[in-house]
Design brief:
This protein has 205 residues and is of the alpha/beta class. The protein is built from 7 helices and 7 strands. A 7-stranded mixed sheet has the order 3-2-1-4-5-7-6, sandwiched between helices. The radius of gyration is 17 Å and the shape is globular. The protein starts with 10 loop residues before the first helix and ends in a 7-residue tail after the last strand. Bound molecules: S-adenosylmethionine. The site of S-adenosylmethionine has 22 residues, from α3 and α5. S-adenosylmethionine binds next to α3 and α5.
Length: 205
């Protein structure tokens, strides 16, 4: 999108197909998302925006799998039209792999009806300290052993955009860096993206 006129940043242009959807992550983070989603069968993304990461997940997941996309799309300036939501649907439906279920709710509400196991959970919704803590507290229990939770904007790095006091950075620090939460390990970190894996029960690091 570098060099693209600022006007074209409006999501309506992605919906119309005049530009690709705007990813809110780097190319290396995108590759890491694809790698960890490969072959997974029960994937959940919290925070979809225009759908760039959702497309990466859909392309990589198992053809027999299901991807649940959770976003209330409440930030659109034109709520009646909601170009962000339309752009996301257009992008995600451009790939036919697997099955996709949209949940147009806040993650804290969506979890009330959640029952099944998850083998890939991407948390990229509410970045406030309370919001990210709530997503972790309410969702991680559904992640199976060998499954992963991926946090975006959760690490600082030289020249990066994140800060020590950002909600995801603080949460990942507290849970996995200052202590090692039993049963979990940091499996990969790419720029601001942190992948944590649930270990099989009883396993020692
Ligand atoms: C950073 S963007 C997501 C970017 C997207 N994952 C990508 O990489 O292309 C954050 C999105 O989270 C959504 N969001 C904010 N709070 C949320 C919540 N509590 N539950 C679900 N989605 C939320 C916003 O509507 C917004 O679309």
């Amino acid at each position: 999108m570098k060099g693209t006129h600022a006007l074209l940043r409006h999501p309506v242009f992605a919906w119309l197909g005049f530009r690709p959807v705007l990813g809110q992550h780097t190319a290396a983070e995108h590759s890491a998302l694809s790698k960890w989603a490969t072959g997974r069968s029960s994937l959940v993304e919290i925070g979809v925006a225009e759908g760039a990461s959702a497309v990466a997940l859909r392309e990589a997941m198992s053809a027999e799998g299901t991807l649940w996309l959770i976003d209330p799309f409440h930030l659109s300036r034109e709520r009646w039209f909601n170009a962000t939501k339309r752009a996301a649907h257009r992008a995600v439906e451009g790939c036919r792999n697997g099955r996709v279920i949209w949940i147009e709710k806040f993650s804290s509400v969506a979890v009330d009806d959640w029952k099944g196991p998850i083998d890939f959970l991407f948390i990229d919704g509410d970045h406030s300290e309370t919001g990210i803590q709530q997503d972790w507290d309410k969702w991680h229990r559904f992640v199976v052993s060998g499954g992963v939770v991926v946090f975006h904007d959760a690490a600082t790095f030289p020249g990066g955009w994140t800060r020590e006091d950002w909600g995801p950075v603080r949460l990942v620090d507290q849970l996995f860096r200052e202590q090692a939460l039993p049963g979990w390990r940091i499996a990969q970190q790419v720029y601001s993206l942190v992948v944590v894996e649930r270990l099989p029960e009883g396993s020692q690091l």
